[in-house]
Amino acid sequence: MSAIFDVRNLKRTFGGLAVTNDVSLSMAPGDRVALIGPNGAGKTTFVNLVTGNLLPNSGSVALGGEDVTRLGPTERVRRGLVRSFQVTRLFSEMTPEEHVALAILQREGRTGRMFASHRAMPDVMDEVHALLARLGIAHLARHRVSEIAYGQQRLLELALALALKPRVLLLDEPAAGVPQSDTARIEQAIADLPADLAVLMIEHDMDLVFRFARRVVVLAAGEIIFDGSPDAVTKDARVRQAYLGSYADARSVA
Amino acid sequence: MMALTMNTGTLSTARDRRARLTRDAIGVLVILAVAVLGYLLFPNNLALLTRITAIALLVLSLDLVTGYCGVATLGHAALFGAGAYGAGIAAAHFGITDPIAMLAVGVVAGALAGLVSGAVVLRAHGLPQLVLSIAIIHLAHEAANKASGWTGGSDGLAGIMPDAVFGLWQFDLWGRTAYVFGIVLLIAAFVVLRQIVRSPFGMLCRGIKQDPLRVRAMGASVHGTLIRMYAISGAVAGAGGALNAISTQVVGLDSLSFTLSAEALVMLVLGGTGSLYGALIGTLSFLWFEDVVSAANPFHWLTIVGALLIAVVLFAPKGLYGSLAALIERRGRKGR
């Protein structure tokens, strides 16, 4: 299948130090890719380059065959590249219903409307409740976000991303900070993501990576050192070297 | 808890609409009741009540950008002054003396001033934003002072003689027509703004206030949205300025002053930001309190106003309306 997401030879330096160095990564619709790497590997910079919050020194980013390297973050979102945040970024004074309605209206270019409440739009409200129900938080629809548990906020973060109907979804540590009791819920939600969606998950939790990913990409010191199946990653000598340094020879990763 | 369970679809939509209409009708009735009460209690002081109405439009306008969008500004009187001078100059220099036409000129002038000052103020955030807004009001004030051929400079712009409203109601010496004109204008603005703050556009603005980065990650334009809100805000403030010009038949430099900008912000904080009722209650209580206290003690009234403000900020940080609403919400939750 042709690539929906295509990053070629991306490079970004800060004061002479290449934080992202010649990174290429391509995904097809339906891909489930995990991006892992030790601290300081350049994962955050990579995400910022892909979403358009940083401009690269060289290289390109393409979405669905269209070069978006010079486009800003909002333009990329409108072309189907959506991200979730490592630490939830929600509107604490607003309700889940309002969050999802806003995302749907934004997707449809209706946020400029000044004389109709979203609650008077049955098509929007039906979609809002269907989406919230799918993630198991419909009963919280009209609670303020500041009043709901963190695990449920993470689910809302997912709902928000899905409401934008992305073609490519970047999940930045979707289960970070969530108590163990709630992670199953989030994992289930991730497993239920639309089949034709290309998903790139940045994650530290290796158990989650192995359950989710059909392909693992390892970033270390700004470069991709491994791109292959989850089975092969633990056996790869360079990956072990990157994660464990000199201990790699003495101990096994798993 | 049953009340919180959601029914989807048109049933809840219809119920929501009814609830919204009821709330709006109550709001309009409350404003009307207060207006009638003011008319009956202070028949010789209608000029003050009309001024309160005009300033209420300015504070409502400020609430749109500060309360709903989180933009810090101490230069909002520039929009009010633009409306006042727009309507005044139209009447004094161009013979446009129909009050509705003067109002329209004021609204357009205010919206244009909103676009210009929004374009400048929104370049920065936080303290630099505040400084830019102060620069704007000083520049506007100085420009009006220098262009005395048009504005009358420090003497004020006189010679504003508005016609009768719809050819029927003359502006009388007691200010009855002006007062009714003002209250009708305020209610119209209130109804329109209630729609806007609840609309998808209003929701987007509230989102921007809480987390602009999140809004961008949803693919929405933060700057474009804020500029639009600034123009709307300018139109409302401009209507207030025009009302002031029509009712007092003179426009002074004080309508374009830093002091008025700062007082408008004080009134908004006093009433509570981010709600239209807060803006109205803040204006009414501040100006009424100022009137009473300055009459009672002409030497120390500013001290007393200062003490009141400190008390409100310390003990009711959400403002008079905001704190009351929070209290009622807490009570309601306990009772459930």
From TrEMBL, chain A:
<comment type="similarity">
    <text>Belongs to the ABC transporter superfamily.</text>
</comment>
<dbReference type="InterPro" id="IPR003439">
    <property type="entry name" value="ABC_transporter-like_ATP-bd"/>
</dbReference>
<dbReference type="InterPro" id="IPR017871">
    <property type="entry name" value="ABC_transporter-like_CS"/>
</dbReference>
<keyword id="KW-0813">Transport</keyword>
<dbReference type="InterPro" id="IPR032823">
    <property type="entry name" value="BCA_ABC_TP_C"/>
</dbReference>
<keyword id="KW-0547">Nucleotide-binding</keyword>
<feature type="domain" description="ABC transporter">
    <location>
        <begin position="5"/>
        <end position="246"/>
    </location>
</feature>
<dbReference type="InterPro" id="IPR003593">
    <property type="entry name" value="AAA+_ATPase"/>
</dbReference>
<dbReference type="Pfam" id="PF00005">
    <property type="entry name" value="ABC_tran"/>
</dbReference>
<dbReference type="GO" id="GO:0005524">
    <property type="term" value="F:ATP binding"/>
</dbReference>
<dbReference type="Pfam" id="PF12399">
    <property type="entry name" value="BCA_ABC_TP_C"/>
</dbReference>
<keyword id="KW-0067">ATP-binding</keyword>
<protein>
    <submittedName>
        <fullName>ABC transporter ATP-binding protein</fullName>
    </submittedName>
</protein>
<dbReference type="InterPro" id="IPR027417">
    <property type="entry name" value="P-loop_NTPase"/>
</dbReference>
<dbReference type="InterPro" id="IPR051120">
    <property type="entry name" value="ABC_AA/LPS_Transport"/>
</dbReference>
